[in-house]
Amino acid sequence: MFDFCSSMTDEQDARARELIERAAAKWPLRILHVLSDAGAPLRFSRLMERVEGISQKMLTQTLRTLERDGLIIRTLYPEVPPRVEYELTPLGRDLLMQVAALWRWIVEHLDDFDARKAVKLTTARA
Amino acid sequence: MFDFCSSMTDEQDARARELIERAAAKWPLRILHVLSDAGAPLRFSRLMERVEGISQKMLTQTLRTLERDGLIIRTLYPEVPPRVEYELTPLGRDLLMQVAALWRWIVEHLDDFDARKAVKLTTARA
DNA sequence: ATCTATACACACCTTGAGGTAACTGACGTG
DNA sequence: CACGTCAGTTACCTCAAGGTGTGTATAGAT
Questions:
Q1: What is the DSSP letter of B121?
Q2: How far apart are CA A72 and CA A83, in angstroms?
Q3: pLDDT tens digits, A7-31
Q4: How many Cβ atoms are within 10 Å of B29's Cβ, its own excluded?
Q5: The predicted structure's pLDDT at residue A8
Q6: Is residue A83 less than 8 Å (CB to CB) from chain B?
Q7: Separation of alpha carbons A106 and B12, rounded Å
Q8: Residue B5: pLDDT above 60?
Q9: Do A63 and A72 touch, CB atoms closer than 8 A?
């Protein structure tokens, strides 16, 4: 009907779906958000502080995935103690902009969600 | 920096994040997509056929959540055997349009993801 | 009397996501 | 010599997501 995928191959569709799933998940989304807000490269420990509730393990793990997806860049400065900085790639920045649009739309329509308003009478469950 | 959430309260932000997380997950996204493509109300069993790989349990469960979020409408026709139809609400349709934009953007930039191109030399891991 | 179709609910079980805690390595400092 | 710092890694454990398989109500068809 809306046919919003007409020009996509199944392959593309599946891949995009996967990416959207991964990027829109809890930690990835928050990490990208934090990196964007910071506006500058952040060290591992700064991220730990700002991404509230994340465990060290999940942070490294998620950062690796984001790096593999080309959304962030990891830069290791071979000093002692080691310094590692993470920053958004242009792609990551752009993706976040796209997601932000969706995000904003949702916030604007928050009142409509959670709508038991839309319930038809016939919908009443037994 | 990009400050794309400046006008949101923490409350709104959290709620939107949650919604985005839920809607962009595997099954919800696929179900909404199928319902949109169909362009007409679909019965439970039709959904089972079209959402490949989903289990009956997950289908009912996800449908309930989508209903609670106001994205779909469930209509029970008290016949025998029972007939139940699911369709997108306007909100569901609109949300899907928003997501579709993101979706399309990703497909257009698929080549950029999975980019080990963006790797700096300094990034080389030990 | 039995069988079929529909849309589930429910009990059971497996798997994997993710948490916690301890360990590492290299070097500067007291 | 012991200690602290940073950015992890590794082993272990838990819990919840999700799969499977079965039960149920109802009425018409055979």
A1: G
A2: 16
A3: 678 888 889 999 999 999 999 999 9
A4: 20
A5: 74
A6: no
A7: 9
A8: no
A9: yes
The answer for B 86-115 residues in CB contact with A (under 8 A) is: 89, 91, 93-107, 109-110, 112-115
Q: What are phi and psi for residue B118, nearest 5 degrees?
A: -75, 0
Average model confidence (pLDDT) across chain A: 88
Torsion from C-alpha of B19, A57, A52, A23, nearest 10 degrees: -30
**How many secondary structure helices (H) and strands (E) does chain A include?**
5, 3
For residue A34 the two structure tokens come to 């934090």
| A24 CB burial (10 A radius; 0-12, 13-18, 19+) | buried
Cα–Cα distance, B18 to B124 (Å, whole number)? 35
| Alpha helices for B39-89 (secondary structure H) | 44-50, 56-68
Stretch (H or E) spanning B87: strand B83-88
Q: How far apart are the first and last CA of chain B?
A: 32
Helix B56-68 and helix B26-38, axial crossing angle in degrees, nearest 10: 80
Find tokens 């995928």 and name the residue: A5
Whether the pTM exceeds 0.90: the reply is no
Which residues sit opposite A75 in a β-bridge? A85
Structure-token pair, residue B105: 């953007």
Confidence of residue A35 (pLDDT cuts 50, 70, 90): very high
Q: Which tokens sit at A121? A: 């009478």
Q: Where are the alpha helices (DSSP H) in A5-86?
A: 10-23, 26-38, 44-50, 56-68
Residues 50-109 of B with CB under 7 A from strand C: 56-57, 60, 63, 74, 80-84
